[in-house]
Backbone:
């Protein structure tokens, strides 16, 4: 059977979207539309890159989609919370995301903050409740929660956003700072997606360290390509073209030019693929995801 | 030896404060003061009611302070995050809390949001890392994280804040809605503090259900007394007197008058104390905490 990465991604995305619908609280009582605003942002689109990576990493070491799904969905909820908060007026002040009005544009700032808070908190509850229901051992659940909370917390994703805000508009930003922002803000949760998937799938230490190498190169490549797309004005990420440049956000193309940035992304993708070389044919989805992300129209 | 509740509370508070200092990340690099702003709010005072309840509940069923401390501190971090976000301009817009400038008055809105996000996320990491280091079993850690994330999430504390915001300024609020707000916004995390403490201490099902009864009555009594203090202008909670009334917040005294509200708080405290009747003398701290909270100057 011929493997087609687009088919793979859309089939996995469908499974994730369906589960997210199941997992998110259905409706509010008459007094608040908190749950509605949580659903709005989670279901407002998105590539589902992180949950798909989590699932693919579980599969590469012999695990099942089913077992990885609760953690995969929880990671997507945490990713969504970070987008809601990043878009707030006091942060990036974005009115649109993926071509749709941002959460606070629809529900107001207060409810947007609370929707983010709730998605983050509920994500941990989901891992516990559905993890147990799915037969994950308590040790594995604890391990996974440790990885995810570390990646998302004050030394990971939140720190990346804080540094990004600090650097916004500064004239003298180094490539090292830019890499640090990307590594923390995007890379940490991408790495946690892959690693927790690998752990759920039963990967051994050697397999996990190869997955870690893969995820680190992939995460940085992914963010650089996003930056390049922003400059080039590819409509895929749903922002107006050049938005980041206008805000004087720290970006690779802004620092070293589009051509060099593309070269680095290319090289990082090669490294990601190379990290998979000792896996069997089950690593094909992870490999092709890396190539697919590089190949986005830019 | 004569038991003195003030001494008990200050000794436990000291232990908690010391541990919080240990647990909170020390310093930032030069690029952001995220960690500083997290420390600022956690160390800006506070009764440490939730961690003290967690510790006292562990002790009542035969557990040790040491074992309960990481979870007790994590709960205080979650409580602090909720205060930082509640104080934001788009929420309650408070410039002072416990007599000190609120987080966003000092660090700006963006960093205040991020400090809250980070405290919430790091709290789960703390439970995992320090829980394991403290010899809690993975099953117990998973159980505790489930309880806390449920209490703090979209069906607990965050929901309470969302409903509170929705009801603010409405003319026709029922006592039932007011109780729902209190139960979710304050009660859920207080209940989780007591229950997780009881679980860490090794409490059996019967003991845990008595602790649950205690915590529910105590949590509601505590909030009603806070409302009464706000009207009466006791300076203890550090807000200007009558702040909640000016904002048309839902309060018991606002709905049924100070006298009736006091009567209800009195009765709830009696219920809390009664729920402890089958415990031995180790239940004295929990009992006296309930009486102490009722006795705050009002």
Residues:
């Amino acid at each position: 059977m011929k493997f087609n990465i687009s088919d793979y991604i859309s089939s996995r995305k469908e499974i994730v979207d369906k589960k997210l619908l199941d997992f998110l609280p259905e409706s509010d009582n008459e007094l608040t539309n908190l749950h509605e605003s949580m659903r709005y942002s989670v279901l407002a689109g998105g590539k589902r890159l992180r949950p798909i990576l989590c699932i693919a990493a579980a599969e590469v070491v012999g695990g099942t989609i089913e077992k990885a799904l609760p953690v995969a969905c929880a990671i997507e909820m945490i990713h969504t919370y970070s987008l809601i908060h990043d878009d707030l007026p006091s942060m990036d002040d974005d009115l649109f995301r993926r071509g749709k009005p941002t959460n606070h544009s629809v529900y107001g700032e207060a409810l947007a903050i609370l929707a983010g808070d709730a998605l983050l908190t509920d994500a941990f509850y989901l891992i516990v409740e559905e993890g147990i229901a799915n037969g994950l051992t308590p040790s594995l659940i604890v391990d996974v929660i440790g990885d995810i909370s570390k990646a998302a917390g004050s030394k990971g994703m939140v720190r990346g956003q804080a540094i990004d805000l600090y650097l916004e508009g500064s004239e003298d930003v180094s490539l090292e700072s830019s890499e640090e922002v990307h590594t923390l803000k995007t890379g940490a949760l991408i790495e946690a997606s892959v690693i927790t998937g690998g752990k759920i799938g039963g990967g051994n230490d050697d397999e996990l360290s190869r997955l870690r190498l893969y995820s680190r190169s992939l995460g940085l490549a992914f963010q650089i390509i996003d930056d390049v797309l922003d400059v080039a004005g590819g409509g895929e990420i749903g922002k107006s073209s050049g938005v980041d440049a206008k805000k004087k956000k720290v970006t690779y193309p802004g620092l070293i030019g589009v051509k060099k940035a593309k070269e680095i992304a290319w090289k990082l993708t090669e490294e990601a693929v190379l990290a998979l070389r000792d896996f069997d044919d089950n690593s094909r989805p992870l490999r092709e995801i890396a190539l697919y992300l590089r190949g986005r129209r830019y």
User: Anything to note?
Assistant: Chain B touches chain A through 53 residues (CB under 8 Å).
